[in-house]
Design goal:
Number of helices: 15
Strand content: 5-15%
Helix content: 25-40%
Distance between the termini: 56 Å
Order of helices and strands: HEHEEHHEEHHHHEEEEEHHHEEHHHEEEH
Bound molecules: manganese (II) ion
Number of strands: 15
Amino acid sequence: MNPKDMAFPFVCDRLALQQRRQRLAQALPCPVLLWAGESQPRNFPANRYPFRASSHFLYFAGLPLEKAVLRLEQGRLQLFIDPPSPAEILWQGETPPPAEIAAWIGADSVHPLADLQSYRAGAATLPLPSPLISWQQAQILGREVPIAAKLTGSDLELAAAIAQLRLTHDPAALRELRRAGSVTVAAHQGGMAATHTSQTETEVRAAMESVLTAANMTSAYASIVTVQGEVLHQSQSFHPLKAGDLLLADVGAETLSGWGADVTRTWPVSGKFSAPQRAIYQLVLSAQDRCIAALAPGVEYRQIHFLAAQVLAEGLVDLGILRGDPQELVDRDAHALFFPHGIGHLLGLDVHDLEDLGDLASYAPGRNRSDRFGLCFLRLDRPLQTGMVVTIEPGFYQVPQILADPVRRRTYQDCVNWQRLADFADVRGIRIEDDVLITETGCEVLTQSLPKQPEEIEALVSRSPLGGYPR
Ligand SMILES: [Mn+2]
């Protein structure tokens, strides 16, 4: 079978894969073994969770090959993979023979997994979050592979080298990120259009995820489609939709070769923002616009976070919710009462890209996570570089766990007008999130085509295919 006839619904850019291997070889002289991983059984072996290959494997292999291992040395690629067993062929069907798969990804040679042990000498590797793979790695390498936070020696050098490569994206990666972005935009438009005929959150979620499935993509993370926007990662979608609710949808596509998108919009179920909802929405939007306008190579991402905090604090003072000097409020982390998370994160093969390596990639050398209330969830703290993709996702939330906490209430007694805040009771959570590529001259919003102005959102939610009406 000719590789181009194979039934892989993938674009495999062999030249890009080869260049990634060569760049790794320049950074690291020792051989490298990278495990793809394998699907986990749900409860009994024949019923399994969907397979998702390790992102480090995908970066160099381009294909999600289950139970495969890559060996990289001096830019050469050896693929270790077994043909399917007769039982696997019976139930799952034929797959292309290993030699064809190897040709497809541009491997220099292909070997059965049983040969892996004879190529283990001096190899660096990275852990996977799987006890089974940890066990396999220990068997093959004759040593334990620690969790990412405890890597040492050549494993740590490998982690740093791959992080350096994956921090910025090559044209092949950007093509995939753009594909994920455009399908995600369509999913959000589908969700807005489905709202007026939906009775529950999950119906809107189904409309959104059906767009991903139809495009042969999956979700890059558990979708959040909820009227409980204040629950930051609310993945339950069973609540009924009521006029007056805001619906927060944080849904992103992932291409079959693993590249993702991460987008959030918040819209009124009725098709019309209430006055308080609109005021806060405008404020969050202005924070996002100001942050995006400030993105450029060399800019510290931490400063973007503080810019969002500053804009939100100024706006909340103007609305009478916070009292005091905005700069002082930010210095005291008062903004974090309503914006408790970071302004965003890296995006790539993982939705929080490279977070499997802890803060190794996301924090510049010598920097550590702050334990400050307003900074502890800052996921990226380094100067921006051309070719990075980051999310910009300011928000406003009324989280009972924070606002009803007696210690916080005492600490911020003088700076919150609780009576005024009560006027905004119908704003539980608003987040606006886009994916942004850092370019030489500034930035490009990859998900720009998804409307975010309140009037545009209202029009999209209200419009039905039958020329319908808001509820
Ligand atoms: Mn995000």
